Fold this protein.
Amino acid sequence: MEVTIEHIGTLPVVAVAGRLDTSTAPVFDAQMAPLLAEPRTRILLDLHGLTYISSAGLRSILQLVKHTAAHQGRVGLFGASSAIMEVVEISGFPALLDIYADRAAALSSQAG
């Protein structure tokens, strides 16, 4: 798994590539810790490189959702493959996340 964090202004865009599963979720959580050390109302997840997500990976994303919700915000995601989106949908996450067709749509939603 590879995680890259890009800041667009104050908005973190977190790109995740590879597998987010039982063995990689703790690494992901550790990489997210500095982001969660500050109040965040928005975090965008770029999942175009994500090839697999397990329940452990979903728990890691849920941690981001809870953090932003505590600050009256939401997590957005874009770029997920149909297989990843199927897992997200079966898990009921669309009610918790803002899902965008692509990066441009996700970023334009942040304006204003």
